[in-house]
Amino acid sequence: MSATEVKAVLKFTRISPQKVRKLVGAIKGKPAETAIDTLKFMPQKGAAIVEKVLRSAVANAEQNHNLDVDTLVVKNVTADQGPTLKRFRARARGRGTRILKRTAHITVVLSDEAI
Questions:
Q1: CATH number, domain at 93?
Q2: Cα–Cα distance between 57 and 2 in angstroms, integer?
Q3: 48 backbone dihedrals φ, ψ, rounded to 5°
Q4: pLDDT by residue (tens digit) across 14-72?
Q5: d(Cα 28, Cα 24) in Å, to the nearest integer?
Q6: Is 70 exceeded by the pLDDT of residue 114?
Q7: Backbone angles phi, psi at 97, to 5 degrees
C-alpha cells in the first residue's frame, strides 16, 4: 500500500511564523489524534491556530480521500513567512517608529503511513 498524503493550508494568519515554529516539534511525527490533544492543552495562541489547521487536514483526509482517521500521522508542519503589515507608532520628539505585523502561511501534511 502506498502512503497517501493529505494537506491543509492556512494563509495570511496574523501570527509570526517564528512563534508557530516553536510548536511544530511537539506534534511532528505523532498520530493526528495525539497531536490534537497535545495542542489543545498548550497555552500559546499559535497552538489554537495550528490545531484548527490540523483538524482541517484530518477532515480533508476523511472527506476527500476516504482515509481512516485513526491511522493518520502528522508528517510535516511548516510555518512560512507571509506578507508583513507595516505600521507606524508615534514616539518622543515628533518621531515615529515602524511596527512590523507579521503574517504566516501554515501548512500541515498528514500521511496514513507511519514515518
A1: 3.90.470.10
A2: 19
A3: -65, -35
A4: 999 999 999 999 999 999 999 999 999 999 999 999 999 999 999 999 999 999 999 99
A5: 6
A6: no
A7: -120, 150
